[in-house]
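A protein record in our archive is deliberately plain, so that people and models can read it alike. The tokens are whole numbers drawn from a learned vocabulary of local backbone shapes. For reference, a complete record is included directly beneath this paragraph.
>
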Amino acid sequence: MVARDWGQLLLLGLIWGGSFFFARVAVAEIQPLMLVLLRVGIAAMVLQVYLALRGLSFRPVFTRAPAFLLLALLNNVVPFSLIFVGQTELGAGPASVLYATTPFWTVILANILTSDEKLSRNKVAGILLGIAGTAVMIGPGLLTGLGSPLWAKLALIGAAISYALAVIFAKRFRDVSPVVVATGQLSASTVIMIPLVLATHGSAGFLSASLPVWSAVVALAVLSTAFAFILYFNLIASAGATNASLVTLVVPVSAIFLGALFLGERFETFELAGIALIGLGLVTIDGRAFRRAR
């Protein structure tokens, strides 16, 4: 990846790390599935307005509607649901490590399903270092939930595999503007989520939410979803599926930094060690430092 791609990757990891703050506030008063609907629905509306202001056509989404519905299922509906179900039984530590395996599954699946993203020693070594760094960074929290049911762990692995399939599938939209792809995916996710939420929760559960909660919902939708997915699809088009999936290694690091910056949380030694391992993993995947050293 070039420097611009690394900059986008780090910015995306920072934004998605911040989404945990917004979600932590919002989920206190809004049901998780309702929150998912609000997140994708508001983001879709914001992007529709943005498309109109820029004069960009939404027509490519209509002409490839089945593909966008599949992308929405793989990148939003299925993983969001599996993560929610799995975390009812699984601690945050193991869940984070299983989520961070997304690049590993992406490398394997991209090697099988694509012709331009094959396995390399640098990729495999770097991703394994990143997963190990995530586990070390979580530290004692990793022990929480190790005895959880197998199905809960499989749910998180299923979510990681779904994300991996989504990032590979998204490569077929390289001929479409990243803004249009993001708008199409989020609009399709909204269409899918509306009947799901109505069937499970009805229309109640969010109208009585407080102003701070609504502020968190809007921030989650506009910044951590609408803007973030534009970056995400631009990164896929520029750097490829495997490289874009590396953002799942950056997210927990940015969440810890944001916690220290805004919540006064202190860094633990094991967290710094884990961050160092993740950094080494990213440097290994990039490979340029080792080539220069040789």
Q: What stands out?
A: Residues 3-293 form one domain.
